[in-house]
Amino acid sequence: MTTCWLLCLSLWLSYGPAAAGQTYAVVVGISDYQALSYATGDLRFADRDARQVVQFLQSKPGGQVAASRIRLLTNRQATWANIQRALTLFREAHAGDRVILYFSGHGLPDSFVPYDVVPGSQQKLLTHRLIKTAFHDSKATTKLCIADACLSGSMTRPSRQRTVAQSMTSDGGKGNNVAMILASRSTQSAIESRRLAGGAFTYYLLQGLNGRADFDHDKIVTIRELHRYVSPQVRQTTRGKQAPVFYGRFSDTLALSYL
Q: Which intervals hold domain Peptidase C14 caspase (predicted)?
C-alpha cells in the first residue's frame, strides 16, 4: 500500500515549532464499553494504551507534563459528559501552549464512541465537530488530535463546507500548528495486536516519540520524522490493512518530543 500523505499544502509553510509553553492533555482509552462485551465489540488494550500515553507525557521526552494539566479517562470514566467536561481544560491554554487530545476506542464515521454510547442511536457520540469546536475555542499555539480508532481518518472531512484546517483554526490566528494524527483512513479499521499488547498505531507512535523516529539524531522528533517512522511500521504490522493519516496545518519541523 502506498504511503498515505494526506498533508495540507500548507505543511510546507514556515509556521515554525511552537514556542516553549505548557501542555494540556485529555487522554481517553475505552476497552470495556457499558453496552458491549468482548464477544460483541469490547476491545483489549485501549485503556492500557491511554495510560501509556500519559506515562509518555509525564516523561522527559513528553515534556514532563504535570498531572494537574492531564485528564485521563478510561473505561467507565470515559462517558460522553465526562469527556466533554474534560475538553474544557483546553480553555486554560494560552498562546505558546500546546493542547493534545488522545482517544483510543471505537470509531464511527465522523465520531468517536464514548463508554456510555447507546447502540443504534446517534445520541452520546463524541462527534468530530464537537472536538474541532474544542480546539477552535482554545488559544493554544499547537493543537494535536491523536486517535487510535477505526475510521478515524474520517476526521479529515470538511465540516459545513469548510476545510478541516478552517474548522479547527479559523479563530483569528490562534493555532499556528494544528495536526490530526490518526490511526487509519476513513474506510479502515484500527487493529489491536496481541503480540504488541496494544493498538499497532499507538505502539509505534510511542516508539517513535521515544526516539525510534529521530532519524537525524538531533534529539528532537519532528512530526515529519514521526510520520516517516509510524506509517510504514503500521502498514507492515497490519499487512497493509491500516494506513495512518497525518493531516492539518503545521510545519514539518514541528517538534513533538525532546529526547
A: 24-248
